[in-house]
Design goal:
single chain, 220 residues, Peptide Deformylase, five-stranded antiparallel beta sheet, three-stranded antiparallel beta sheet
């Protein structure tokens, strides 16, 4: 009973204190220990010191089946995304090997409307040759972040949450980076596989990332 109350309190506090930002946002008033505890409860973790090649995080995810409880899966993903303060989440991160992910659009540049969109069985159609280096972290890889290049623009085909015909969408800059991060999850890859240079502490990653985003005019 006490543990359930603790988890409920954690979710309540996080919902009111975390801003939407890359996989989690640094904040001077964020309860760090509470965040880490809740994240570890909700999100499958990759332990760099004792890697497990059989982990769901390292297996290519399977296409969605007609027998799957897709609404239930999407609900769980939305809840985990909200409680952890992320901008993207893939089904393997909650232990489900299905090709589904969510993106919270509008987090960069600031000032846009925030929209969470589900991408079911996404297919990468094309991407730009032009790349850009930026910093990333991941809810499944605790306490660290790093810099890596991603394509600046891509085009996806996916089944929408509402069903019906498959749709196509073009994503650029920050949303394109999030999509590539989540596509990697569906292919059994992690951002740390692509990092150029050493990993840094999560606080240092946030500092460097936000410095670059201010220079681009994405945040104040």
């Amino acid at each position: 009973m006490q543990r359930r109350r603790y988890v409920w309190l954690a979710a309540t506090i996080l919902a009111t204190t975390q801003a939407a930002c890359v996989h989690p946002q640094a904040s001077t008033n964020r309860p760090e220990k509470l965040t880490e505890e809740l994240t570890r409860q909700l999100i499958v973790q990759w332990h760099r010191e004792a890697p497990d090649p059989t982990s769901v995080l390292r297996q290519p995810a399977q296409p969605v089946s007609p027998d799957d409880d897709l609404p239930g899966l999407l609900q769980k993903l939305r809840e985990a995304l909200s409680k952890t303060g992320g901008v993207g989440i893939a089904a393997p991160q909650i232990g489900v090997s299905r090709r589904v992910f969510l993106i919270k659009h509008g987090t960069r540049p600031h000032g846009q409307s925030l929209v969470v969109r589900a991408y079911i069985d996404p297919e990468l159609l094309s991407h730009s040759d032009e790349t850009e280096a930026d910093y990333e972290a991941c809810l499944s890889v605790a306490s660290v972040g790093g810099q890596l290049p991603r394509a600046k623009r891509l085009r996806l085909r996916f089944t929408p949450e509402s069903g019906g015909p498959r749709q196509e969408i073009e994503l650029v800059d920050w949303d394109a980076r999030i999509a590539q991060h989540e596509l990697d999850h569906l292919d059994g890859k992690l951002y740390i596989d692509r990092v150029v240079g050493p990993l840094t502490s999560i606080d240092e990653m946030h500092r460097r990332r936000d410095e670059g985003h201010r220079a681009r005019g994405w945040i104040k």
